[in-house]
Design a protein that fits this description.
Number of helices: 14
Mean pLDDT: 86
Largest sheet: 8 strands, mixed
Low-confidence stretches: 88-93
């Protein structure tokens, strides 16, 4: 058996020296293996040639099968690359894929709902994430990994030791560093093909509208109601879809607020903030570590669905997940036409 494998190596190496195409070299190698299998099938047991080539055809069948699987996989990836590059002509400002990116996003491109067209939409999309904390951390990492081309992150906080139990984008060495820069470092390290824009400041009503106009989607990962209402008002004013999440101890929720598509806005569902004792902060009430990861990943998935047109986004719906009992439920949300924020918009 070793002798046959040596011949295969010699065929491959010799073919490379004389610049034979890879397909031809593979043909010679598999042809030799095919001859060996044929000998095992036709020659009697104990024949010298069978003894010299492994006595049984089983390992050769396995080797041939493994080679066929590798060839099929490589052909599939190559086909995806061709498919991605042969889509409809793009506008001049549309970004294209490098060879490394095509390999990186291959698992997206094999999805019928995304494909090469959807991945291009992700690459050309701009998403702003408000907050780089519990919800923002997983959302930012998955948006970067998914290949969203431009990701903004705004937060005025710095990394603290107490954050690290759940804010997985940050590391112990990042303590004391502004969260937006810690997040940027982790995202670029994960995917150098994305453009991360850090804004180390508090989001105010004065600059929210101007900032939102630079982005296609806004993801709200904040943990206070003043910011939530300011984010919602700016999203309604700019007609920007708002992906919102919230956490409390063992339960989380996620929804898409998009009055431009006749879905409710945040103020339709929560016209006024609850009493502090009814909605304590994570610092006061606590939160189980993996829960923000689950909800943040759901929020990132909603963004991807909105960008690519895949599936059914949570417009007009709220998904609630109780991690303590592994229960999920989904409730319908109705738009209020007397809403002070969006009631007169796009009726």
């Amino acid at each position: 058996m070793l002798l046959v494998l040596l011949f295969c190596v010699l065929i491959w190496g010799g073919g490379a020296l004389i610049n034979l195409p890879k397909r031809l070299r593979w043909g010679f190698v598999f042809g030799l293996i095919g001859v060996v299998i044929l000998m095992h099938v036709t020659l009697a047991d104990g024949h010298p040639l069978r003894l010299q080539t492994g006595e049984t055809a089983a390992p050769w069948f396995m080797l041939l099968g493994a080679g066929a699987l590798i060839f099929a996989y490589r052909s599939g990836v190559r086909s995806l690359r061709v498919h991605a590059m042969q889509q409809a002509p793009e506008p001049e400002n549309t970004k294209t894929f490098s060879e490394a990116e095509l390999n990186r996003y291959a698992r997206h491109m094999v999805l019928r709902e995304i494909g090469g067209v959807g991945q291009k939409k992700l690459k050309n999309a701009k998403v702003l994430v408000i907050g780089a904390g519990g919800l923002g951390s997983p959302a930012l990492m998955y948006l970067a990994a998914a290949g969203v081309g431009t990701i903004g992150v705004i937060d005025d906080d710095v990394v603290e030791n107490s954050n690290l139990q759940r804010q997985v984008i940050h590391r112990d060495a990042d303590i004391g560093i502004p969260k937006v820069f810690s997040a940027q470092k982790a995202m670029v390290a994960q995917n150098p093909y994305v453009d991360v824009r850090p804004y180390h400041r508090k989001l105010t009503e004065a600059d929210a509208i101007e900032l939102f106009q630079d982005y296609d989607f806004v993801l709200d990962g904040t943990d206070n109601f003043d910011t939530r209402y300011a984010v919602n008002a700016a999203a309604v004013a700019t007609k920007t879809p708002l992906i919102s999440g919230a956490l409390s101890q063992w339960e989380g929720q996620v929804s898409v607020f998009d009055p431009a598509q006749n879905a409710p806005c945040y103020a339709c569902v929560f016209p006024s903030p609850p009493a502090p004792e009814l909605a304590p902060s994570c610092a006061a009430a606590g939160v189980v570590g993996p829960l923000p990861g689950v909800i943040g990943a759901m929020m990132a998935t909603e963004v991807i669905k909105l960008i690519t047109g895949a599936g059914a986004p949570l417009r007009g719906e709220m998904l609630i997940y109780d991690v303590a009992y592994a229960e999920t439920r989904k409730i319908s949300l109705k738009r209020r036409h007397d809403c002070a924020v969006c009631g007169g918009a796009d009726r």
